[in-house]
Every structure is written in structure tokens, then in C-alpha cells.
Amino acid sequence: MSASKSATPGTVRPGGRTAKVRAAVLEATRDALVAEGFHALHLDRIASAAEVGKTTVYRRWGSPVGLVADLLRDMAEQSVAASDTGSLEGDLTANADLVRRTLTDPGSAPLFHAVIAAAACDGDCAAALNGFYTTRLKEWAPVVTRAAERGEIPASTDATELLRAVAAPLYYRFAISHEPLTEETAARAVRAALTAAQAGVYATRTTP
Amino acid sequence: MSASKSATPGTVRPGGRTAKVRAAVLEATRDALVAEGFHALHLDRIASAAEVGKTTVYRRWGSPVGLVADLLRDMAEQSVAASDTGSLEGDLTANADLVRRTLTDPGSAPLFHAVIAAAACDGDCAAALNGFYTTRLKEWAPVVTRAAERGEIPASTDATELLRAVAAPLYYRFAISHEPLTEETAARAVRAALTAAQAGVYATRTTP
Predict the structure, then answer these.
(1) What's the CA gap between A60 and B176, in Å, rounded?
(2) Cβ contact (<8 Å) for B192 and A196?
């Protein structure tokens, strides 16, 4: 990839060139993370793989953690928007299916293994991964708010806690117990979270 | 630690010496994993730190993965036995509290981060971590079987799936979203899993 070479002055807006440099650097970061892991991440090699000047990479990203943090920001920005199927079960099923597809896709599964490993080794990577999930939980929270407004679950249901409950059994199999992650796993995670939500387990206070 | 030096021939049974060598090597493995991670694990350095001959370490463990796999076997063997409080809620609470304490203890939390990272990077480490959780789930499965016999939950409840549901929200916060893991997190995981189990979400077939 040669994003920087295509940025002929006068033909590409500065914003466009910046975006292309970022895309090339993040693609190289992603490839390096998957191939060798966080410990082998080196700014010189990323600059070379992305065909971007070393100075640019050092100035804009500063460190391997800077690269991982920006990659996770980009992943959060690129992620699929929350669904609005009209029922909480439909929306949670869409969410669980999205998580399942992401964690079983041959392209994205190794990337998630790599960022989870980086976060386990490095506190700043952990903060960046936390930021990724905070963004995703905020994006999907309206699904729960709308269901509460429709009276499907208690009004005081903690949206992010319910969404964590849907994702947790899938991530547990993916990153902790290393067991197969099937459509049935996703469907059961939805049924369990929905049943618990309806019973008020995720309510932040007692509702009438 | 100098397990090999204390093994004076004739004073210590061969089994005792073997056990001491293993304890010293696994302690050194644990320390190295926490301090530098799986990628920096080297048999020569483990032998040196454990004050055990290199030949012994290479012959008995063979590779860094061999060390991690044996450490995880030892962790499974040393783990707390399943409780039997007389109620499913009591037993699941004991289980969730055990997981919470393990993942928040300053001694064991870094070790779990390290083995989760190792498993994310290396397929053989993943298989070893899978073995650890398989052992733990088997150890605790009677808790669910007894509850089913008492009629607390459907007879066909999948014991391991219910136990995964208790642990998953705790591990999700620990290793995925990197959020605080509180007593309330553990209590809510128990209430959610129990409610879902009672509603038949973890039943493997429809029961009368």
C-alpha cells in the first residue's frame, strides 16, 4: 500500500492525504499485531510497511501504544451501528450475532486475540481497549432505552450492564475458555440476558 | 528457592524431590510470566531462577508451552473445591466470589492476565488454558446436578453452561472491557444466571 505516494500536492485535499496516511499506518499496525503481537510492534517497521515517513509515524503516533490506541479508535468508528428492529429480543439478537461474527471471522478474530493480549500485557493498551468497548456500549445503549420506553423491561434497567451480559458469554469462550462459539451460544446469551432483564436483574433501583 | 539443593540423597524420597523441583520450576515460570510475559519465557532462565539443572527442565518440560501447560495443570489441582451450601444460589455465590477474589487478588490477577495473553498468542497455550477451565467446570458441575435433583432448576440443565454464565461477566470485565470488578458485579452475575437457569435457558431439552 502506498497512500503517501498517491497524495500528489494539489490533487488531493490535505485531509484526504492525512486520512490515507492514517489508513495505511493502521493497516500496517493491524497486520503486525496479528502476525507478531504487541511486543514486536515497532514504529520504524510500521512506517516502512505503510510506506510512510518515519518522522510522520513518530510525530503522530509516538509509540506502539499510540498505534494500538488509534487502531482501536478506528475500529470503534468503523463498527456496525446499533440496530432498531422494534423489539429488544430482535436488537439483542442482532448485537449477539454481530459479536459472534466478529469473533469467528477469519479476518477479525486474530485481531481481537491480538488486542486482548496487548491489553493483558500493557496498562495503556488496556485503557485503549476499555475505550473501544465504552464507545460500543454507548452506541448500542439506545436499544435498551427504547425497550424500557416500550415497557419490555423495567424503566431503570442499566443499559450497558445488559449489553455486557449479552457479549460476556461470547467473549468468555473466545478469550478465556477457548471453546467453540456457535449460533446457539449467541442465542442462549440473548435468552439469558433478556430473561434476567425482564426479571429486573439489571435494574439500578426497584421499580413499581 | 533451592529445592534441588535440599534433596540430599537418602533423606528425601524421590517423589518428594520431584515434587520440590516441580514446585520450584512452576514458581519461577509463574514469576517470569507475570514479570515479562510468555514471549520472554526461556527454559535456561527458568532453570537458573529455580536453581534446577537445565537438563532436567528441558527433559521434563521441553518448551515454554510445556511450562505454561504444567503451571495451568498445577493451578487447576490447587484450586478451591466446589462448595455445597445446600442451595444453588449459595453455591453459585461461592463460585462467583471465588472467581472475583482470584481476579482481583494482587497475587493471582497478574498471573491470569499473563496466561490469558499467552493463550491469545499461542494455540498450545490456548489448549492448556481450555484444559484448566474444563477441569474447573467439571469440579463445580455437581453443584448444578444437586440443585436439579432438589428441583431448583430443570432436570436437564447444562451444568457447565450455567457455570460459564456465572463466570463470564466477571472475566469480561477483567480481560475484555477492563472495567472494575466488584462484589455487585459478582452478585448480579449470580442473579442473572440463576434467573435464566430457573426459566430453562440452560436446559438441553424441554422438561415437563
Answers:
(1) 27
(2) yes
Q: Is the pLDDT of residue A85 over 60?
A: yes
In chain B, residues with a C-beta closer than 8 Å to the C-beta of A176 are: 116, 129, 133, 167-168, 171, 175
* Residue written as grid cell 435464566: B196
Model-level pTM? 0.90
Q: How many residues does chain B have?
A: 208
Show the domains of chain A with their CATH numbers.
Answer: 17-74 (1.10.10.60), 82-198 (1.10.357.10)
SS3 (DSSP) at A65: helix
CB A61 within 8 A of CB A25: yes
Distances (CA, A) of A124 to A38, A63, A159, B197: 12, 11, 26, 38
H helix count then E strand count, chain B = 9, 0
> Of B117, B133, B192, which is closest to A117 when you measure between CB atoms?
B117
The whole-number pLDDT of residue A23 equals 96
Give B203's DSSP letter.
B
Nearest-10 crossing angle of helices B88-104, B159-171: 40
Residue type, B116: I
Q: How far apart are the first and last CA of chain A?
A: 59
| Of residues A158, A161, A179, A157, the one with CA closest to residue A170 | A179
Contact present, B145 and B155 (Cβ < 8 Å): no
Q: Is the Cβ–Cβ distance between B123 and B108 less than 8 Å?
A: no
Contacts of B105 (CB under 8 A, 6+ apart): none
Taking only the tens place, the pLDDT of each residue in A146-192 is 999 999 999 999 999 999 999 999 999 999 999 999 999 999 999 99
Measured between CA atoms, how close is A136 to chain B, in angstroms? 11
- What is the interface pTM, i.e. ipTM, of the complex? 0.90
Cα torsion for B111, B114, B120, B121, to the nearest 10°?
-140
Query: B42 to chain A: which residues are within 8 Å by CB?
Result: none
